[in-house]
Amino acid sequence: MKKTHIFLTLLAVALATGLLFISCDTATTASTSTTSGPDSALNGTWFNEESGDVYNFNNGSFEMSFDGNPVRKGTYTTSGNNITVQVTHLHGGNTDPEMALESKWYTKAELKASGKIIDELLDLEFAPHPGTYSINGNTLIWTLEGYGTSNYTKI
Question: pLDDT, tens digit, for every residue of 49-73?
Fold first, then answer.
């Protein structure tokens, strides 16, 4: 039980770090996609100086890392200035060492089958995360429902 609690805490911190955002300038012009598919203006690497998170967006797929270590990856969709992020994999290298997860990508089913993570945490992590975004020059301002707003710089 202690191992599960420690892992839950670590995953909650990783989720909060990756999704907790700071306030933004409301006068920013939104980048919107008028074509089907994800907004190509998101393609590239975006760095959040406040949290240290790095997101690599590429035509509907993303990978998120922290301090050079992979954390999560998945897909995203855009419509206008709306974005929905869907995590498909978590990286085992960011878990409590006592959990004995290999440093590799895991799907929700694989993590559930390991018996080392409670279903409620998996459901939260792998749920769709809707929000809004805007791009102004090399600045991405991203708000996820329930997590707030953050600024990212394209690098």
Answer: 999 999 999 999 999 999 999 999 9
Q: With helix as H, strand as E and coil as C, how does the chain read?
A: CHHHHHHHHHHHHHHHHHHCECCCCCCCCCCCECCCCCCHHHCEEEECCCCCEEEEEECCEEEEEECCEEEEEEEEEEEECEEEEEEEEEEHHHCCHHHCCCCCEECHHHHHHHCCCCHHHHHHHCCCEEEEEEEECCEEEEEECCCEEEEEEEC
Question: Rounded mean pLDDT of 134-152?
Answer: 94
Rounded mean pLDDT, 12-28: 37
* Torsion (CA) 6, 91, 111, 145 in degrees, nearest 10: 80
For residue 149, give Cα distances in angstroms to 26, 46, 51, 91, 144.
Answer: 11, 14, 12, 24, 7
pLDDT at residue number 45: 98
> Where along the chain do its domains lie?
2-154
* Domain 2-154 architecture: Beta Barrel (2.40)
| pTM for the full predicted model | 0.75
